[in-house]
Amino acid sequence: MDAPLHICQATPADAGIISRIVERSIRVGCALDHRNDAKIVAAWTHNKTAEHIHTWLTDPRLYLNIALLQDKPIGVAMAASSGQIAFCYVQPEWFRRGAGQALIRDLEAWLLNQHLHQARLNSTRTSEAFYRHLGYRASAETFSVAGLQAIPMHKALAPPS
């Protein structure tokens, strides 16, 4: 990326744009997982509406961040105070350009601030190599949910040296 990427905590005013980023990332970027099956896409996106996201943004147990490039939102991620990373979605035209990595690193810093030393997530097949690149390892057998394969992964978190 030529311009600097800025990662910040999302606000309730961001709910609409977050919903659009998530839905587009799923529909376009995750076709390997949903195979353009309308039922699977609907099941995956049903709780990604602006209303649901607004609720998440006001829950103190959750942290949503947003990646901005020249003030344009290009990605979003969410973690829970339990140590679970719920998701990381980037606009498809910004895949493999550092936004997802920056979002996850910010979530990991937030989890460390919550005094947690391990992050957990369920990866899709599309995202598995991305998470492995960031140091996540499979922690259990793959399972199926709503027509998707989920790969449980974890990573030990260490404070920056």
UniProtKB/TrEMBL annotation:
CDD domains: NAT_SF (cd04301). Residues 5-158 form the N-acetyltransferase domain. Keywords: Acyltransferase, Transferase. It holds the Pfam family Acetyltransf_10. The keyword Aminoacyl-tRNA synthetase does not apply. The keyword DNA-binding does not apply. GO terms for molecular function: acyltransferase activity, transferring groups other than amino-acyl groups. InterPro entries: Acyl_CoA_acyltransferase, Bact_Acetyltransf, GNAT_dom. This is GNAT family N-acetyltransferase. It comes from Pseudomonas frederiksbergensis. The lineage of its organism: Bacteria, Pseudomonadati, Pseudomonadota, Gammaproteobacteria, Pseudomonadales.
